[in-house]
From TrEMBL:
This is glucuronosyltransferase. Belongs to the UDP-glycosyltransferase family. Transmembrane segments: none annotated. Keywords: Glycosyltransferase, Transferase. GO terms for molecular function: glucuronosyltransferase activity. It is an enzyme of class 2 (transferase). The keyword Transferase applies. It comes from the Eukaryota. Its EC number is 2.4.1.17. Gene3D superfamilies: Glycogen Phosphorylase B. It comes from Meloidogyne javanica.
Amino acid sequence: MKKLNIANVLCYNGKYDVYLLVVKFEGNVISKKPLEEVHLIEVTYIEDKEYSQVLNKGGIEMNWTVEDKKDDDHLIKLLGFYMYFTYKAIIENPKVEIYGIPQKIFDWLKFMGQQFALGIAEFSLSGGAFPLFEEIGLKKYIAATSTIPFPIYLHFFGQELYYLMPELKHPQVYYTFYEQNQVEYLNLARKRALEKNLLGNHKLIKVEEMPKMWDLLRKSKYYLINVHPLGQFPFPNIPKRIVNIGGIEVEIEGILNEIEEEKELKEKKENKAQKNLRGFITAGDQKCFNQALYVGVPLILIPFTFKQKFNAKIAEYMKVGITVDHTKFVEEFPLAVKKLMREDQHPPNILVENGNKIKEAIEQFPNGQIKTFLEIVDKTIEDKDKEKPFPEMRKFEEDSLLYFGHKPFSVVLEEFVNSKQK
């Protein structure tokens, strides 16, 4: 859980009182316990058929034998549900336990709004925390994403080019659904407030006056993405307020493991495991991808979703991975393993060599991503963020669809080390 790792980092640093607000679906549990000092507030999400039907909800099934349909079409349909489910759960004002006392969550947040130094919330498909920040009067907040940044988010932040990212749709497709879902949600909320009084005394504003999700996003001081600086295509002209923090989950879990286990025993296990570890097989999920960079092993990727396919393209660009088409698994997987295991290559196996280079570069700067994240938090709270504001959001123009090439990964690796040394 990305937000839990962020809470743990802030708590471990020892400077902040951290409140982790989790909207919890029935039957799900929080898999990793945060540090004791993190105040965990759980708001149970009550299943709502009308809400789910209007704004859609459902899972994505993986099929090993059938050629993929573009599953981002399905994801777009889920956008409306995930945009607002957190907001909806909070403004219905259920009682939750805070400091051992039952309190209405929206009332408590409204009261605390001026006392919070900073808010940090997910913005990928979900975005419900941002209208909530607006209502409770929280002025300083940071947006974060647990995934790769979609072209639509780069569009919201006023990027000069619409990057033709492999496997990802043009941002205009998403933009249309953002507009549509925003109106549908507000109309549904009004209807329910009138019929069932589910929202209590919460005052619903007019559609035309409702803050747009992209405007609320652009008010954030920074946009933190769960991608390591080395684990991405080197897109040009990215604003300095878009910051890579991918890898903090690897770094904080390493710290927590050292707290809970004997360090010497842990190191022995790691050394033995790394000597025997020749590669890592993954679908290409973001956390696994980040972990592989730190461990320094090559990858065999078997992607299903478009996000996994995007990471597979990055691994190929970095020359640390081999992609296997899941519909041709029987034919392609043995060949990928054979290529990965070969030691008689001259020059040496480029996948292994590049994996080691990435690991060595990262190890030069221990807990470097945690440091980057904490610096961003400190700057925001202390009003020391001096970077230029996000550029204005552009109109959709055909001539902005420009092709550009990527610099060699060896250059990216050298630039990463040089930037950290400075």
